[in-house]
Amino acid sequence: MTQPDHPPVSFVPLALLAVALPFLIAGSAPPTSTYFNQAVAFGGCGVWLLIWALTARPSLAAQPSSAPTKLLLVAGALLVAATLTSSTPWGQRLAPLACLVLAGALMHATAAATRAARLDDWATPLMTALLVAGLLSLVVGLVQVFWPELADGRLVSYPTIAGRAIGNMRQPNQLSTLLLWAAAAAVWLGVRERQPLAVTAVVLSALVFGVALTASRTGSVGVVLLALWGLVDRRLPRPVRGLLLAMLPLYALSWWGLEQWLSAHGVMYYGEDQLKKTLHGDPSSSRGKIWANTWDMICSHPWTGVGVGAYNFIWSMTPFPGRPVAFYDHSHNIVLQLAVESGVPMALVILGCTLAALWQARPALTVADDDRARGARTALFMLVMVGVHSLLEYPLWYVYFLLPAAMLAGWLTGLVPVRPAATTALAVSRLAGAWRSVWCATGALALAGSLWSTVEYGSVAVIFEPDLSWGEPAPLAQRMAKGQRSVLWGHHADYASVTMAAKPEEVFAQFERPLYHLADTRLLIAYARALLARGEIQKATHVAARLREFHNPASADFFAACEAPGAEPSATPFQCLPDPGLPAEALRPAP
């Protein structure tokens, strides 16, 4: 395929900053282990979008959008509307809103560049960055499994489970998806640049071995999808198709080899435990229970949902005697999450737009130009991969997956043939100017927002890590007070305040933000005691009953009084009283 002139700016360095680097940052500061990864992804993509918009030719911005691109923009706009109309604390909705807006702008920009045949603007840099991120993350995984003593927390995150790679994202499932994205990038780049098959074979084999290092069952499904891609895609060269099919037995051999090697060195390969869970235990790892709980919540709130961002609070405050014992802030299934938070009608419309967009993108998969068709099929495979992951977890709630996925969607929909619109030159010029303004404004705001967010995050991080302060750290009370003024991250400071307060009822208004973030044992105990001190005994008893359902060892002292013999009924501690079974909405904290 003939390419137009290269842009005056090479976007590969920007892609490495915006896409590769976020997957590789090992350093962290409490209370969020992946904050810097996500902030760099958000700000880096903003810089890429801004520089691209400033250097793009005006004619590029006037490219007509395909129907699939428009449908995805509608789905994104509906998500924004659902987030705006939620009743959860505003500051905790601001970051998701910003991410959705940036994702939409990136998708539209990538689609416009693709329609203008400028793959070097977005698609090629994106795939290059993902391949670099995958290969360097493979090195991280090798260190974590074979030389864990070399992990320093600065270049390589400390491994949390012996014999299992977690990458610098600290999650094996996320690492496996990145490695499979990198494998797809290696295939596309290798075919497009006519690299020797041996090079592609070595890269693919290494990346698939890396997936085995994660012992991720999601990764196992991804390797099967990789083989299926090779089986069904006749636009790929025959040797490459054979190579993709060979990855499945190579993966099985890697599992066996890792099990043998690690056991010989006194370490259990985590894949063995995963296999036992799948065959003889709970194959869903408690996901089945959380899905059942979520379905019950959907049935109770079918029309408008519980509100975007309210999932954890409503779930924590709803009686579920058979609930999983971990504290979940997500249903681990994107379809259920949309339905429970936005309501079934809104979820159906959003999912309908998304599926219709994919259906209408079919012409991109069958165009006569092999290069365009292979690009569309590669993008589709990568979107399917992260989509399957999203049915089991929530990777798209992480900026470093959401924004590349938006670019992939723009690449795919931008390859759909579009009939030229019958519009005047003036209308085209105005449209081009409008879109360039949107891209520039969005990119600039994303960069400014990431810097502002990092400053605000620092004001909260020093509460938990005083050494992060410039100079002598201020007293804890002052650090908490300053952190509470943060719009984006003040809920962490509120959490510290209410859980450390001798009389939590005196700071009752500060419960709202942390309760809508993640209710855990300390927070629920403090909330129950605050309600009791305010004379709201039924509410206090209800919260205690919910905490009991988690069977958390940290709550043993709180419930120890219930085991004391011979107490008078009138003196029964509130946490030992029968559950009043109040509706979850009645437990919303109000001054």
Describe this protein's structure:
The chain has 25 helices and no strands. The chain is 65% helix and 0% strand. The N and C termini lie far apart (64 Å). By secondary structure, it is mostly helical. It is globular and about 80 Å long. Residues 1-7 have low confidence and may be disordered.
**Please, what is the oligomeric state?**
single chain
Helix percentage range: 55-70%
* Secondary-structure content class: mainly alpha
Q: Report the average pLDDT across residues.
A: 91
Low-confidence stretches: 1-7
Compute the gyration radius: what is it? 26 Å
How many beta-strand segments? 0
Structure, briefly:
The protein is mainly alpha-helical. The protein has helices at residues 12-24, 35-55, 58-61, 67-84, 90-115, 123-146, 172-192, 197-214, 217-232, 238-264, 270-280, 287-300, 311-317, 334-342, 344-360, 362-365, 370-390, 399-414, 425-464, 476-484, 490-500, 512-517, 521-533, 537-549, 556-559.
Features:
single chain; mainly alpha; 25 helices; 0% strand; disordered N terminus
Give the helix/strand layout:
Layout: H1 12-24, H2 35-55, H3 58-61, H4 67-84, H5 90-115, H6 123-146, H7 172-192, H8 197-214, H9 217-232, H10 238-264, H11 270-280, H12 287-300, H13 311-317, H14 334-342, H15 344-360, H16 362-365, H17 370-390, H18 399-414, H19 425-464, H20 476-484, H21 490-500, H22 512-517, H23 521-533, H24 537-549, H25 556-559
Helix pairs in contact: 1-2, 1-6, 2-5, 2-19, 4-5, 4-15, 4-18, 5-18, 5-19, 6-7, 6-8, 7-8, 7-9, 7-17, 8-10, 9-10, 9-17, 12-14, 14-15, 17-18, 19-20, 20-21, 23-24
